[in-house]
Amino acid sequence: MPVARGVGGANDRVCQELRQALRSGPFSAALNLAIEASGLTLEELQLRLMEEGVRVSVPTLSYWRRGRSRPERPTSLQAVRVLEGFLTLPPDSLLSLLGPRRLRGRWIGHLPGRMDAGKLFGDARPIDLLHSVGVPMARGALRRISTHVTVSVAGDRQAWSIRLRELVQANADRVSRCGVVYVAEEQPDNPAALGYLRECRVGRVQVDQSAGVTAAELILDRVLNVGERALVEYEWCFPQGVPMVNYEHRFAEPIREFVLQVRFAPSAVPAECRRYDRRTVSAPEGNLRELWIGSSDTALLAESDVPAGIVGMRWAWPAVPVRTEEQPRDAR
């Protein structure tokens, strides 16, 4: 990942800690280490800021560095942007650690039709882990516009990867993080791990093997203001493979488009495949619909204006021997 370019005189420990802080925060730690690596005093930084027409007091810089306060006003954010240049840091590397402005008064992230996350999981642990990585579901600073999921099922009828591509939109200024969670209900002791990433990088990750839950913070490659959108791609991997007879996605709020594609190895094409939905995790599966599997050995579910709740696909195989070495066509 990009790190400070002007830290040649700093010791290896500071450089290593700075790289980690720029990756996962917090802002105060990254700023403190960047200042230490630069060799500049707060007074020197204040003077350079003044030369650029930005006024920030030394006590304010000290508060930011120690985590006693954080920059929020436009002039303060401009100061951080200028500091990134003085400290030879990549653009937005400090700003992205601030995240969205603290929400005050009315909850700006609220959307009509939003569902309480507890009704989607029936277990507090996925929600708690998302909170622990700094991107709680209830925050509402970022919403999904569309979600595309591709599940790859190998010849042994096990899934080895699930790839997601999501279009997200900011409901607040300075949004830089996206929370993702996977619940391995099939084998809780074999939780998913993040693999392929594009347009983002991994921040904090928490795993609860007793429940098969993996929660992660994805740091976007740029900071979003209200109404701005970003496209992120990421992959859940199962190094040991995991038996899978269905995949379902859980939506805490309505989404404009949901696409689910399941690619089967030629020797693992199921006898039947059906679409289903559930309003909550405790509700029975309903609105069943048969899905056809094409000549590419792929089943497709594509829906628009999906309400909050659970939508999934379930498949079943005939009782015949399976081959363990074969992979789905075009699996990546």
Low-confidence stretches: 1-10, 103-110
> On the 0-100 scale, what is the average pLDDT?
85
Strand % is 35-45%
Overall structural domain count:
2
Q: Helical amount among residues, as a percent range?
A: 10-25%
Q: Which strands sit side by side, in order, in the main sheet?
A: 4-7-2-1-9-12
Described by the principal axes of the CA atoms, the overall outline is elongated
CATH topology description of the largest domain: Immunoglobulin-like
CATH class of the largest domain: Mainly Beta
The second-level CATH architecture of the largest domain is Sandwich
Rounded to the nearest angstrom, the radius of gyration is: 23 Å
The largest sheet is:
6 strands, mixed
SSE series:
HHHHHHHHEEEEEEEEEEEEE
Number of helices: 8
Distance between the termini: 24 Å
Number of strands: 13
User: Which structural class do the helices and strands define?
Assistant: alpha+beta
